[in-house]
Specification:
Blueprint: H1 3-6, E1 12-21, E2 31-36, E3 39-44, H2 46-58, E4 70-78, H3 88-94, E5 105-114, E6 120-128
Parallel strand pairs: 4-5
Antiparallel strand pairs: 1-6, 2-3, 4-6
Length: 129
């Protein structure tokens, strides 16, 4: 499916796009409390770690990485109505694969959708024209 059918591109030069299967874990809500060497810490939950690994394998690796200020459009299809809309773990995984740092993202268009049979994400990364 063409990116134009999913997102209203406006004056954006889309440079990369991909689809990845699986439901993302919320970065904010996917922490667990542990003790490491006697210190308390919050780390990513098992679900969040598994999603990071899965998305890391599905995310394309660009060479060279996209530079400059970026616009990201992400449509997240969740398996249930429960999850909050949270794209942060997706942006983190794209670091070093699509762009150098997620601080380059100056504009985000994030959409929440429901697909119980096929949870997934559709991502487009571009630059203003």
């Amino acid at each position: 499916m063409a990116i134009e059918k999913i997102f209203d591109p406006g004056d954006i030069d889309w440079l990369a796009s991909f689809t990845a299967i699986g439901e993302p874990a919320s970065k904010a809500n996917s922490r667990k409390f542990v003790r490491i060497k006697g210190r308390s810490a919050f780390i990513k939950s098992d679900k969040a770690l598994a999603y990071v690994q899965s998305l890391g394998l599905q995310c394309p690796r660009l060479d060279p990485l996209i530079e400059g200020n970026l616009i990201v459009a992400i449509r997240i299809f969740y398996a249930s109505k429960r999850p909050d809309l949270d794209e942060s773990i997706i942006l983190d995984v794209m670091q070093g694969k699509i762009y150098k740092n997620d601080r380059q993202v100056k504009q985000k268009h994030i959409y929440w959708d429901l697909d119980r049979q096929d949870p997934r994400i559709i991502v487009a990364v571009g630059k203003p024209s």
